[in-house]
Amino acid sequence: PFPEVDADWESTESECCIFHFLTGTAGYRDIETLMDIADVEADNASDLIGRPLEEKIEVILLPRVLGHGGFAGGEIYISYLDRNYAGNAYSQVLHHEIVHILDRRAGGRFRPTFFVEGLAVYLSEGCRYVRFGGGHDVVHARDAIRRFRVGTVKGESLVREPVEGGRGVTEEKA
Length: 174
Fold this sequence. Notes:
This protein has helices spanning 2-5, 26-29, 31-49, 90-105, 113-123, 141-144, and strands spanning 9-13, 17-22, 57-62, 70-72, 76-79, 129-132, 137-140, 148-153, 156-162, 170-171. It is of the alpha+beta class. The longest helix has 19 residues, at 31-49.
């Protein structure tokens, strides 16, 4: 299409990330806002995992929909365009992918896929509530992580048993 013929790749940096995007796209137009959102989401993900962001994350903004709107390898690829075909919020997809990057950097590369994806969904509010204790407590997913101790065994991160007196937001059953 005509506008993309003249497009060039540009890059800029925020506190957390190095962004790559094409000129003339929604990502180019909204880059200042997208960087601010990324800094907030990176801080939140870092706090939840309990691991500081030691090096910047590369984020490639794509003007096309891929999969569910994003994926992570050594860097993060996010679909960002005016039409939201995937139906996901940029901030939630970015947070989810940042969790993957931080988890991988913490040594979590060799765990089963269901656990890797489950952790990212869990910490990015893809799952709103989690039941503990045979279904007696209903806990908001982001608060539930505070009930667990995360450790490393032979370079592999894992979630261990509940921490005594762990904090969580509980609600009465209806």
